[in-house]
Amino acid sequence: MADSSLIKKYDVPGPRYTSYPTVPHWKNETFSTEKWTKSLIHTFVETNHTSGISLYIHLPYCESLCTFCACHKRITKNHTVELPYIQAVLKEWSLYLALFPEKPLISEIHLGGGTPSFFAPEMLQLLIAGILENVEVTAKHEFSFEGHPNNTTAEHLQTLYDLGFRRVSFGVQDYDPQVQKAIHRIQPFENVKKVTELARTIGYTSVSHDLVFGLPFQKISSVENTIQKTLELKPDRIAFYSYAHVPWIKGNGQRGFEDENLPSGEEKRLLYERGRAMFEQNNYAEIGMDHFALPEDNLYKAQENGSLHRNFMGYTTTQSKVLLGLGASSISDCWTAFAQNIKEIDTYIETVNAGELPVFKGHILSNEDIFIRQQILNIICQLETSWQIFDWSGQEKEILFEKLEDFEEDGLITFNEFGLKVLPKGKAFIRNICMAFDKHLNQTNSQQKLFSKTI
Ligand SMILES: C[S@@+](CC[C@H](N)C(=O)[O-])C[C@H]1O[C@@H](n2cnc3c(N)ncnc32)[C@H](O)[C@@H]1O
Ligand code: SF4
Questions:
Q1: Distance, CA 67 to ligand 2 centroid (Å)?
Q2: 100 C-alpha vs ligand 2 centroid, how far in Å?
Q3: H or E stretch covering 142
């Protein structure tokens, strides 16, 4: 089948699989905070000494709204919000510390948002110093943060460097003036150049740039220009995200442009293909889905040695089975259970200050969920998976294998009774291949307004 027909066939709404089951399919009815903490402690005890735990800390404020953004954030110029928020996150951490039977071993900290660099350096110092009190850290710990090129300062970079941060990702998105205007994010190349060079001078060993394809008014020529500029700065990693158009999500503020300003599925795919070719010509390797890295970067090495992992933070090189999400809206994962924090910031703060874990929903994974989760993780990280026993009813297996046959006919995979391999042509359709295994999706068929399109 020609590539354009494949794109038409497979450009349907679908998850990005930072978790399985995906959040809209969690069974909240059978979840409770008690069950969550029980599962968490169980995995913690099993893995703390070996792989340690990862922390994701959500810092939800931004000074100005970018109208393409799907992250959970609150827009304000009032910086008095910083201290009470940091204190609440530290209080939440103390609630978890009280649950753990021993000192946690921290392998990873990621500050995401919103905009971590919205916070003053001394606030970030207070936060990280408070988190690191009474814990151990692994020898190969990875501390990273998301910085906005317009407000990340030398003090931010130095403060976090002194606390052990060696990785930073900057949101670049696109350099084209028409695109920047439509997404309400005016961000000159000079700002990105300045923070990238500053980070390197201070000693950061991995600088990443986030670009997005599929934004309003993007054309091949404008994306080529954005990538050319990006290559001049030679980031160690590049995230080349597919624009997730989810305007129905309440309060996320995706507006300021019309649907007809967006590239079509096929145009979007061409933008990606062009980007990929340019990155590959410049020595970057494609990592899983949407990511590129230079051969010296750990993400590339992890893909090569089969240790690449994916969780709510995206692709990662650490193998922790416990990812604790702190802060409003953060999601935690202990492999056998997920839990999400209250999204509304004031309610989040009130709840932790009252001494309660701010969890408001979650999912306890069944054995079948865990089996499928592992298959999807293998496909999305290693581009192949295998199974010994397929413990599904005959009919379910038949339905799955019918879908796999269809992928095989389209040249996307090869498969047999015990596993599958994604072929080069199938890389563009990884999300679709994972969807074939997603039992919750197949049961509800309600993905229409839950997920962005797969292409
Ligand atoms: C929380 S933001 C980054 C930190 C900082 N606030 C900034 O904007 O520079 C993380 C990244 O998510 C990506 N992102 C946000 N909304 C997106 C969307 N709708 N589709 C695809 N990627 C998106 C952007 O590339 C963005 O840089
Ligand atoms: S892209 Fe970054 S700065 Fe813009 S609204 Fe989203 S989180 Fe805030």
A1: 8
A2: 34
A3: strand 136-147
